[in-house]
Specification:
It contains 4 helices and 16 strands. The protein is α+β, with helices and mostly antiparallel strands.
Length: about 240
């Protein structure tokens, strides 16, 4: 099986300064590694239950595609943001030397977005991304990463054609009173390749008797045999 190749490129003058994009499967969060495999359940009188560490769909979402990292440390103090980063001026490109930009709140007029500060933060991305022919890229918030104090908005870009441009990442800041540093290398977007094809057609119907029987058997296996999905169905 061949894997779709995404090529990330940066200006050569920035190569030594920038944290590099990485395969998501190679950058799983520290909290996942630290969390227990089982935990006592209060509602079950303290009997242990398996944690998300045993959930293949959850893990596969964390591992999907690639992650784009934050270029430099960002320091936040109750809505104010600053940084100490001095990349070289690049007269041969129009990329900003700032690691962030802002969208005016009016640009989200009508969207049900809670704004913790009076703007929408935009993480600037210093990597161009080339996708294989016929492939678009979904840019979204790092999946299942609810510990991050922002929420990256999602978008799809045809990066097989838009391979020489930068895709930046608007994000909602979630905590007005957050004070601290968002370190360089923090994942700010997850990138998932999407082969372009005709939109799938949807058929809505009812189960046949055979499908009801198969469904019941599978539900029984899932309830009684740990690892059923991982062992029998996971690719």
């Amino acid at each position: 099986m061949t894997h779709p190749q995404i090529i990330a490129r940066c200006h050569p003058a920035l190569e030594a300064l920038l944290p590099k994009p990485t395969a998501a499967r190679a950058a799983l969060p520290d909290w996942l590694r630290a969390m227990p495999s089982e935990a006592p359940a209060e509602t079950l009188n303290g009997d242990p239950v398996r944690t998300l560490k045993h959930c293949p769909p959850f893990l596969d979402a964390l591992s999907l595609g690639i992650l784009i990292p934050l270029a430099t440390d960002l320091h936040f103090d109750k809505g104010a943001v600053s940084w100490d980063w001095d990349p070289p001026a690049l007269p041969d490109t129009l990329i900003s030397r700032s690691p962030i930009a802002l969208h005016l709140p009016e640009q989200a007029t009508g969207a049900p977005y809670p704004l913790a500060v009076n703007s929408i933060l935009k993480f600037l991305n210093f990597w161009t991304l080339e996708a294989p022919s016929g492939t678009s890229l979904l840019f979204t918030h790092p999946l299942n990463r609810e510990e991050l104090p922002f929420r990256t908005l999602s978008g799809v870009v045809d990066c097989d054609l838009f391979r020489d441009g930068y895709v930046h990442f608007p994000a909602l800041w979630l905590d007005r009173d957050f004070t601290g540093t968002l370190p360089a290398g923090t994942p700010i977007a997850q990138v998932i390749p999407l082969p372009r094809s005709a939109p799938p057609e949807l058929t809505v119907t009812t189960m046949t008797e055979a499908q009801i029987t198969a469904n019941r058997a599978l539900q029984t296996d899932l309830a009684t045999t740990p690892g059923t999905y991982r062992k029998r169905f996971r690719h």
